[in-house]
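@channel sequence for tomorrow's demo:
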Amino acid sequence: MKDQINMQEINPKAYKAMYALEGFLAECSLSKTQKELIKIRASQINGCAFCLDMHIKDALKHGESPQRIHTLSAWRETSFFTKEEMALLAFTEEVTLIPSGVSSATHEAMLAFFTEIQITEIIMAIVTINAWNRIAISTHLQPVLDPQ
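structure tokens (generated this afternoon):
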């Protein structure tokens, strides 16, 4: 499948708006690990191969373990993630899937680890990767196979 439309080339103002969100996230209090866990988990849920490829590579560069990345889609079934990370992943799933909003239990778990300001930053990180997923999927962006 080839790209249907090069949105960045055709409408650079749209990409500029997305990069403004990325600029905000670059300066927020979330760690690189937290940001990459959000990006990878949301991209798994959304089935975005382009974003998965990009953010798995970024996570590995930042020191994330391959084992944790390989098991991220089944994080509840492992002991590899901290309680804080589990709260973050549950929150990411609920914001991404939006069945009926974030549950009270998930919100309470988040408050145990994050300030309200940090929760707003996390929401923006989740919203941003979900937007990127939708851009990449709707325009058929494809990851490039790395040479072996």
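heads up for whoever presents: DSSP finds eight helices and no strands in the chain.
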